[in-house]
Specification:
Blueprint lengths: L2 E2 L1 H11 L13 H11 L2 E2 L12 H7 L5 H8 L9 E5 L3 E5 L7 H9 L5 H6 L1 H14 L4 H7 L13 H13 L4 E6 L2 E5 L7 H4 L6 H16 L1 E3 H7 L4 H13 L4 E5 L6 E3 L12 E3 L10 H8 L20 E6 L2 E11 L4 E9 L5 H18 L4 E7 L3 H12 L1
Parallel strand pairs: 1-8, 13-14
Antiparallel strand pairs: 2-4, 3-4, 5-6, 7-9, 8-9, 10-11, 11-12, 12-13
Helix pairs in contact: 7-9, 8-9, 11-12, 11-13, 12-13, 15-16
Length: about 400
């Protein structure tokens, strides 16, 4: 088993995630979106909109300013000129993934069919509701859960209805999980359900069933390509595969020569190297990373790669937060050098850096200068006219000066 340094592993990870690819010289288009998806494989969806929704940010981090409709048309519309490229499903969490990967997750749909708890109680206790929901979507879709409820004439439990709104929503989510419904479109961030045959192309919808073990092996292989070099925990976290099938898949990929076990100096666990992983001599450039960027999904991996202890503090009571509500790590020349608590204040038309914290030992003046440039770029991308720096954090004063200097 050969050995590599943690610095090489870090550069491999960044290259695998697309941070060494050149940003577009002009406006990014579909080929840039596809190039990024070939790297990351997935875009995680999340409802938090304090700065920008999670599925838009990883593209900005890698491409710079791009038109948001690039994602919207790829995921939630279809035309002869711009065919749909992405579908929604439970992959890492709720994610956008390439249409071609949909069949690789049918085993998960079958697994959800077998469950009896949580959401699935509605399906098994009230099969009539499930049939009615499908009938409404077939007739009126794409349609929201609220629209389904209205079409069925359902009222909330407080008004004496037979099924309340939550039951209708749960029925829609159950059907989504088992693959009988998918997302036809979104309006705002609200999912509008539709039948898969009206959303997915025939070659995807009618693809042969992939055996469970084969599908998991391919998902682990995709995770390995997206990560470059990774531990077993890293690999199974990418598509949320359980330990036993993940270990079996890793063993088979090693046996087939599609993964190479390696030692990364400083890592306790064996790592696995994808054969196409490359280690550039250096990594340059800058990027703000949202909390749901795939580079930092697995927090223990983030610490191993960058020495960066990162936790999202959304659910931490405000007085107990260390850094802030929605904190973006700042990547500069291959290192995580700072963290910024960001808020897009749309009413005031400004991007607020409410707290700014430098990592120990970084050159604060340069970090502040580069961060100011990236914040101005992000503000412009979001259609905001200014950047405002708050008082919290040891980098706040330097960043405030850098933001002001960049305007002069």
């Amino acid at each position: 088993m050969r050995s590599i340094s943690d610095a090489v592993a870090r550069r491999m990870a960044l290259a695998a995630q697309g941070f060494t690819d050149p940003r577009p010289a002009g406006q990014a288009g579909r080929r840039h979106l596809l190039r990024t998806l070939r790297r990351t494989k997935l875009l995680q969806l999340d409802s938090v909109n304090v700065a920008v929704r999670a599925h838009y940010m990883p593209l900005f981090s890698r491409l710079g300013p791009y038109p948001a409709e690039l994602v919207d048309t790829a995921a939630w519309s279809h035309s002869a000129r711009k065919p749909r490229l992405l579908a929604e499903y439970w992959a890492h969490e709720a994610c956008l993934l390439p249409l071609a990967d949909w069949p690789l997750l049918r085993w998960r749909m079958r697994h959800y069919e077998s469950l009896r708890g949580r959401y699935w109680k509605v399906a098994h206790a009230q099969p009539g509701l499930i049939s009615d929901v499908l009938a409404v979507v077939k007739e009126q879709g794409p349609i929201s859960a609220g629209g389904v409820e209205k079409a069925l004439g359902l009222q909330s439990a407080a008004k004496g209805g037979w099924w309340n709104r939550s039951a209708a929503k749960v029925a829609c989510e159950y059907l989504f999980a088992v693959g009988e419904l998918t997302t036809g479109t979104r309006r705002g961030f609200e999912r509008h359900y539709d039948l898969p045959e009206r959303v997915l192309p025939p070659e995807v919808l009618n693809a042969p069933e992939i055996p469970h073990t084969d599908a998991i092996r391919e998902l682990i292989a995709r995770a390995a390509e997206a990560l470059g070099v990774a531990t077993e925990t890293d690999l199974r976290d990418y598509y949320r595969i359980k330990p036993a099938p993940a270990r079996r898949a890793i063993g088979e990929l090693v046996e087939d020569g599609r993964l190479e076990p390696v030692r990364v100096r400083g890592w306790r666990q064996t790592a696995y190297l994808h054969p196409e992983a490359r280690a550039p001599r250096k990594v340059t450039g800058r990027a703000l990373l949202c909390p749901f960027d795939p580079l930092i999904w697995e927090r223990s991996r983030t610490h191993r790669l960058f020495g960066f202890h990162y936790r999202i503090e959304i659910y931490v009571p405000a007085p107990k937060r260390v850094y802030g509500y929605y904190v973006f790590p700042f990547l500069l020349d291959g290192e995580l050098v700072a963290r910024v608590d960001l808020k897009a204040d749309r009413a005031a038309g400004v991007l607020r850096a409410q707290g700014v914290f430098a990592e120990p030992g970084v050159p604060q003046a340069r970090v502040a200068h580069e961060l100011a440039g990236e914040l101005w770029s992000m503000a412009g991308w979001l259609g905001l006219a200014g950047v405002v720096v708050g008082e919290r954090g040891d980098l706040a004063a330097a960043l405030r000066a850098a933001v002001a200097a960049s305007v002069e």
